[in-house]
Amino acid sequence: MxxxxxxxxxxxxxxxxxxxxxxxxxxxxxxxxxxxxxxTVSPLNELPFHRGVNINAWFxxxxxxxxxxxxxxxxxxxxxxxxxxxxxxxxxxHSNVGPAPDFKLDEEYLxxxxxxxxxxxxxxxxxxxxxxxxxxxxxPSYGEELITSCCCQLANRYKNKDKxxxxxxxxxxxDYLKENWPTMQGRIVKAVRACDPDLMIVVTGWGGDPRNLxxxxxxxxxxxxxxxxxxxxxxxxxxxAYWNKGLxxxxxxxxxxxxxRMPAIHPEWENDEYLVDLYNRYTVMASAEQIHKDIAAVADxxxxxxxxxxxxxxxALNTSEPSDRYSWYKAVADALTDxxxxxxxxxxxxxxPVNFSIFKDGKNYNTLDTDMMEALxxxxxxxx
Length: 384
Description:
Blueprint lengths: L3 H7 L23 H4 L13 E4 L18 H9 L4 E6 L15 H15 L4 E6 L11 H15 L6 E4 L7 H19 L6 E5 L19 E7 L3 H4 L35 H8 L1 H4 L2 H18 L3 E6 L7 H17 L4 E3 L24 H6 L9
Parallel strand pairs: 1-2, 1-8, 2-3, 3-4, 4-5, 5-6, 6-7
Helix pairs in contact: 5-6, 10-11
C-alpha cells in the first residue's frame, strides 16, 4: 500500500491521473481576439441552478461510441418533474481531438453534443459541460495547451447560448498538478474568458477536495464558480469499488458508525500505518455531525472570500446496507441544503451492478429509488 498522498485521492470516484512531467508550466495562449478580452465581465451574484444529476457514460468516450439517444426525452422530462434544474455532462477531450497545436475537437462529436445540449436546455435545465478526461499516456507534454484549446473551442461555440456552464477540469490529480494546478487554472480561466465575457466558468481545487479550495489564488473574475466533490468517508461510500484494489474487498461498513456492526479491519490493511489510522478514525468520520462540519467548513470559506460554490458530485455505492446508504444521503443533502449549496448528484444511471444510480436496477425509471429521493429531499410526484 502507498502512503497518504497516493491513497486518499486514488479512492475518489472517476478520478483522472496526472504524474510529474506531464504538463508544462507555460502560459496558456488565448485562442480568442484581444478585442473580446477588453469586454466588461458582469458579476455573478448567485447561482441560477439548485439541484441536479450527473449523466455519465454518455459523452465521456470516443465519438464513435457516443449514443446521443441514450438519454431519451422522457428521461429529461422525468428529471424535471423531480424538480431537477441542472444536468452535469462529463465529456471527453483526449479521445476526440486532432494533433497539436490546434487540438481541434471532432466535429461529429460536437454536433451530437450541440443537439443534446439543445434538448436539455429547451426543457429549462442548465447544463454543466464538464471536462472529465486527460490521458497522460497520449498527452505527456502539452496538457495545459490541450485543455486550454478545447475549453476555448467550447466557449466560442456556445457563446451567447443560454444556460450553458463550462467546467475546466474534473478532479485535477497527481503530484505535478498538486503543485501547479492553482496557477495553471488561472491561465486557463483568462484564456476562456477572452472568448466569452458572459460564460459561467467552474473551477476547482486539486482532486476536487473541498479542503483544497483554499489553495486557489484570486482569479479576479466575477463569473467564476467554485466546485467540490464529497464522498466521505470513502470506506463507506466506496466499499466494494471494483476499480480500486484497496476498497474492493471492503464490505459491511455501517453509517452512522455502529460498534456492534463494524467489521474488523481487512487483512490487507493491517500492515499499513495510514490505513490503520483511517480505520480507527471511522468512529468519528462516519457520522452526520462530521458531514455537517465538513460542509459548513467549505460554506464558511466561500462566505469569507465572497465565492459562489456548488457540490458537483456526491454519492454512495449501492453496496452498503440500503438504510445506511439512505442515512448517508440524508446527512449530505441536509448539510448542503442548510448551507444553501446547490448540488449535482453522482449518478443518473449505470449498466453495471455496482453503481451510484438513482435507480434500484441501475437504469430503468420504473425502479426509481424513492427512498433515496426522500433522503435527498426530492419530491416524487404521483405520475412518476
